[in-house]
Amino acid sequence: MVFKKVIGDIKKTYYKHKTKSKIKKYQSSGDIIYSRIFGYRRINDKIVIDEKEAKTIRLVFSLFIQNKTPEQIKIVLDSKNLRNRSLNLFTTREIIKVIRPVFAGYIHIKSGGFIRLKHYESIVSLNDYRKAIKVIQKQGIQLESNGYYPLIFGPTTRV
């Protein structure tokens, strides 16, 4: 009985490590494809920019860079009747979540660098993403409990 438990623990540790290393390798390759992400559409197994949604993303980035708060940005989006994919008005939480490196064509890694995504064209520049994040930090906005500099992965090469 004890022997089975020891063997089971060894197998569990082995497969856990094997799976984590495969996930890390996949993430560091930049070959990630998300199932659904605002601003992009999947057409014939290719990811393309949805221009209507991309305009909203660019507007949110530019307003953050102009030092606007999420509440002020919400007022602007509501006045233009811009809506999310569910056809609802944006919430302030959704507005904060728009500031993602994927819209610059990258993912952010824990070591502080970025990896270029193979399947996503940039909607905004990496420089604009960095500026928007600095504004969010200056405003003292609390990010998600998972550290919502969204899509953060393990260490790999830096850009």
Low-confidence stretches: 146-159
N- to C-terminal separation?
Answer: 51 Å
Estimate the strand proportion.
Answer: 5-15%
Calculate the mean pLDDT score and round it. Answer: 77
Globally, the shape reads globular
Tell me about this structure.
There is one protein chain. With 159 residues, this protein is mainly alpha-helical. It has one domain: Hect, E3 ligase catalytic domain fold (Alpha-Beta Complex). Helix content is 45%, strand content 11%. A hairpin with a 2-residue loop joins β1 and β2 (46-49). The radius of gyration is 19 Å and the shape is globular. It starts with a helix and ends in a 6-residue tail after the last strand. Residues 146-159 have low confidence and may be disordered.
What can be said about this structure in brief?
With 159 residues, the protein is mostly helical. The chain has helices spanning 2-28, 51-65, 70-79, 92-97, 126-138; strands spanning 40-43, 46-49, 106-109, 114-116, 152-153.
Topology of helices and strands:
Elements: H1 2-28, E1 40-43, E2 46-49, H2 51-65, H3 70-79, H4 92-97, E3 106-109, E4 114-116, H5 126-138, E5 152-153
Parallel strand pairs: 3-5
Antiparallel strand pairs: 1-2, 3-4
Helix pairs in contact: 2-5
